[in-house]
Amino acid sequence: MSYSSWPSRLGERRRPLRSNSTTPSSRSRACSCWVTAGWLTNIERSGRRLSPSREGQLLYEMAQPLVESLDGLEASFRDKVRGLDAGELHVAANSSTILYLLPKIVEAFRARHPAVRLTLHNAISADGTDLLREDAVDLAVGSMLDVPADLSYAPVYRFEQRLITPPDHPLARKPRLALEDLSPYPLILPPRRQVTYRLVDLVFQQARVPYTVALEVGGWEVIKQYVAMGMGISIVTSICLTDADHDKLATRSLKEWFPTRSYGVVVRKGKYLSPQARAFIELIQPDLFAPRSYEDSGPSER
């Protein structure tokens, strides 16, 4: 059976179909669909020629775009792949995420896509969401407490909240720790716009335990240094604690009062993710923003 004997449009005099938009391979696939689907009743014989019936012509018009898209699939795929070999990628993250979480991911991305120009924008979570809304960055990586309605947050990593003190501090030697035990000692915390400060304030307020902030300073490394010098105590996320800290700091778990902190990927809802952005997210967690079924709860937004 040949596609070339079909009319190009319904209602016209039957004539050989010579459409420039369909290739021999696509016409062959379309014919195969009719045969395998058992739709030969949609084809009429007129003398020695075969032509579609009214239903057959309708089916042809419905199937033609699908068949033509198969012809362009390979070229479209190659264009997508070539798109990964160049271009730019802008990622927003705060200093702790850039310092402790992203190095291996960035290293792997640079090894796989050396021609892509990667820019890391050092920004706290609040500023990172503004950059997302302004389309100044493709995605953000970090921690969120409250997720705005126009953003999607997919948590990937979870870290415990820990108390850090000098090694000889009374809280370091106390057998059982209570939240009230922290109250007499001054805290060193990140600036109040950051998630850590807001979380600490929330927990102490809910427990109705007073606390004092002696110093606000940005950067976990600076906070750890000041705590080691005896200038106060702090509550930090375990992401920033390394083996080198054990000699100069004592740490205690606060999981009884503080929830674990999640870190993940933030994107603007409805925004098209470039191949570069998808490749970067794939290194964090494959299929992180893949479509999910109704029964699947999908990424948490808390």
From TrEMBL:
SUPFAM superfamilies: Periplasmic binding protein-like II. Residues 18-28 have a biased composition (Low complexity). InterPro entries: HTH-type_LysR_regulators, LysR_subst-bd. It comes from the Bacteria. GO terms for cellular component: cytosol. Residues 83-285 form the LysR substrate-binding domain. One of its GO terms (biological process) is regulation of DNA-templated transcription. Residues 1-28 are annotated as: Disordered. This is LysR family transcriptional regulator. It comes from Stenotrophomonas panacihumi.
